[in-house]
Amino acid sequence: MGSITLEKVQKIYGNVEVIPGIDLTINDGEFVVFVGPSGCGKSTLLRLIAGLEDVSGGTLKIDGRDVTDIAPAKRGLAMVFQSYALYPHMSVRKNIAFPLKMAGVDKAEQDRKVEAAAKVLNLTPYLDRRPGQLSGGQRQRVAIGRAIVREPSAFLFDEPLSNLDAALRVNMRLEISELHQSLKTTMIYVTHDQVEAMTMADKIVVLQAGNVEQVGSPLELYRTPRNRFVAGFIGSPKMNFVEGEEAARHGAYAIGVRPEHLALSKESGQWKGTVGVSEHLGSDTFCYVHVDGIGTLNVRTSGEVSVHHGDTVYLTPSEANIHRFDKDGMALR
Amino acid sequence: MATKHSRAAARLMISPAVLLLLGWMIVPLAMTLYFSFQRYNLLMPGMEEWIGLANYQYFLTDPAFFDALINTLLLVGGVLVITIIGGIFLALLLDQPFFGQGVVRILVIAPFFVMPTVSSLVWKNMFLNPVNGLFAHAAKALGLQPYDFFAQAPLASIIGIVSWQWLPFATLILLTALQSLDQEQLEAAEMDGAGPLSRFFYIMVPHLARAITVVILIQTIFLLSVFAEILVTTNGGPGTSSTNLTYLIYAQSLLQFDVGGGSAGGVVAIVLANIVAIFLMRMIGKNLEA
Amino acid sequence: MARQVKTSRKIAFTVIAWGVGLAIFFPILWTFLTSFKTEADAIADPPLFLNFHWTLENYTAVQERSDYFSHFMNSVIISVGSTLAGLVIAVPAAWAMAFVPGKRTKDVLMWMLSTKMLPPVGVLVPLYLLFRDAGLLDTRIGLVIVLTLINLPIIIWMLYTYFREIPGEILEAARMDGASLKAEILYVLTPMAVPGIASTLLLNIILAWNEAFWTLNLTAANAAPLTAFIASYSSPEGLFYAKLSAASTMAIAPILIMGWFSQKQLVRGLTFGAVK
Hints:
The structure holds three protein chains of three kinds.
Chain A: E1 4-13, E2 16-26, E3 31-35, H1 42-50, E4 57-62, E5 65-66, E6 77-80, H2 92-102, H3 107-120, H4 136-148, E7 154-158, H5 166-183, E8 186-191, H6 194-200, E9 203-208, E10 211-216, H7 218-223, H8 228-233, E11 240-243, H9 245-249, E12 254-257, E13 262-265, E14 271-280, E15 284-291, E16 295-302, E17 312-317, E18 323-325, E19 331-332
Parallel strand pairs in A: 3-8, 3-9, 6-7, 7-8
Antiparallel strand pairs in A: 1-2, 1-4, 4-5, 9-10, 11-12, 12-18, 13-17, 14-15, 14-17, 15-16, 18-19
Chain B: H1 4-35, E1 38-39, E2 49-50, H2 54-61, H3 63-94, H4 101-109, H5 116-127, H6 134-141, H7 149-152, H8 154-179, H9 183-191, H10 196-223, H11 228-233, H12 245-255, H13 259-289
Antiparallel strand pairs in B: 1-2
Chain C: H1 7-34, H2 39-42, H3 57-66, H4 68-99, H5 105-115, H6 124-134, H7 140-164, H8 168-176, H9 181-210, H10 214-217, H11 226-231, H12 241-261, H13 263-270
């Protein structure tokens, strides 16, 4: 079991309020992603849950039990660190067995669990190597193995993929998702990469400056962002924002249109502009179009469209997908 | 980044070291200060009395004090100049590709590990001795009059010996710093049209600045209290021509048994060292921030 | 990319570098050679380089007359003892400062370093009197105490710089894995810090071995280490070059060999990690 409840959890360093006070409930078995720009407090929040930092105020409960003042080891959580934090002087086998050894599990049982975890993670051939002899992806798996054998009530991941190259990152993302499907254990995952958040999460928590901006499923955040920050942060490429006259026409201080919700035509349309740069990715083409009186808009079209620098084009937003925001950046519904 | 629990543990773990060093600093310091206001001579037990600043007056007006102060500055400054300039040249040389780098490095570093009493005696007797020293032999072979180093230039001779001991240290540190210089920086400078001299002054010297600072700091700490080299070569003489502050105070306290006078000298030495230290700590403090 | 170096250039530098290296090393080499000469050969003019009558008589003479081995043992006990004592005090302190840094950690470190700036001669008198009254003059334990204290700041600094290179995340991982503070230090920190602890040990033994202010001033006969043993050759025995050389060779050989092994650590150690 692994439900985690935060009640007015606060973190203050000296005079700096890193986290002014967060209320959050994570249900058992959920895959929750904390996402936000660097310095938004997402890693701090994870470390507070882990117990590696003291909370300055509020309470933290795991399965209803108050763990605010309980040592990290006794919270029944497992953590995978950004640097993997493997013990360099121990073999892979000993690394994975370490939490079991600390828990006083007997030797035969340790071996059995290590072998089982290694099998799941394809680490069996590497059990007697040192971490220094492994590739980044393999080290990552060892770190996960070390977490699995504890059979924790929840897994905590602190930007686990940021040290891997792009191709490996996609693979590990799938592996972690699959692991979650098979274990059905609560996972909390911190990342600054909104693609990871969108692809992996059951529930995304968007953080900025220590505050929760919005909590919801990936599609909820995509469809109905609560404010401009979430609208801009979720979705790739970023949403286009337009202020001034055009926005006023829609009865808002600013409007937002995603690149995929703009139709591009060479003949006619609502806004006329000139193509600055066009990026042909094969499957898609992204055009940066300079529109008079509005600014530069990013448009996504199919890969077959042929537009070039200097071409005159017309853009039409899909009215149903226009997001409207007030002066404070809050969404108007 | 830590919890209350680990902070409490940390305080407990650090306290033995702090308490010992605090005691080591405060107890003898307080005693030195106390003795410095006393007439206290080990040869005249029972005559101790409070004499105010008389010891200081006596010590500071003693012409030997002024000589010792100058000698101390010359010794520290001379050795620093020789070892840093020599060290830069040696580091540049050892950084070149040549056969047997490892062995030459070992040869160059060796003097640092020779204890001061050994290096002083070896130099004094086997090299600088005016009758049987190697330099005397060499002078005679060239038809020159052998030079009596310790009689004619005692301080310079000591500076030479101490420099020989510290040159390896400066070289090793500067060489390490030189090797940490990013080769791409040098190549970029070369592409920008900088010749070898410009590369040295505009790229290497600024890069070495931090290492040079460190060499000055560490060597100054040790050079201010050069003692054994003087004790086994000149005993501070002839006259006071090779007496530094450390040796002067030693002589006053343990050769003349004048505890009061020696203590006053000790306080003066501490004050002077602190002036140097404040200056140096600023320097290294800045460097450690970086 | 390493560039191709012209062979002629490399040979030229080889000649220069070896010349300079041998010149700097020469006094040690000459001492070593002289230690195998007869006294007459030692002062021969022109000097004899290798073509002399090789003898070991100086070594036996030095041992017989000045009891080299007892001084050697004093040096070993004093330098190793003070270093081990220093480590026992320094390891916990360095752990605390490296892994649980507070607002004042930097100040504490700087203050520790500043105790090294205290000129020893400034506290010579009281220490001499304290030792006299406590019966510690000319005892090994007395010197162990003094050398432990004067080298403690360097030991702490060195360990601190080594510990700081161990990522805190690894210790946190151990904490998450259920390790107690004791298990964390015993199973995770110490094995990872072994190279750092070893080089700290080595460098401090060297420093203590060669320390020549307190060892000269606080010992007479019983506890005198090799520094004081050699100082006794100051005069008039210093004029017996072959014996002086034999004594010198024996005094420096052990530490010279250790020093060559630790030259890499020497730089970091003595520069408090500021130069690596």
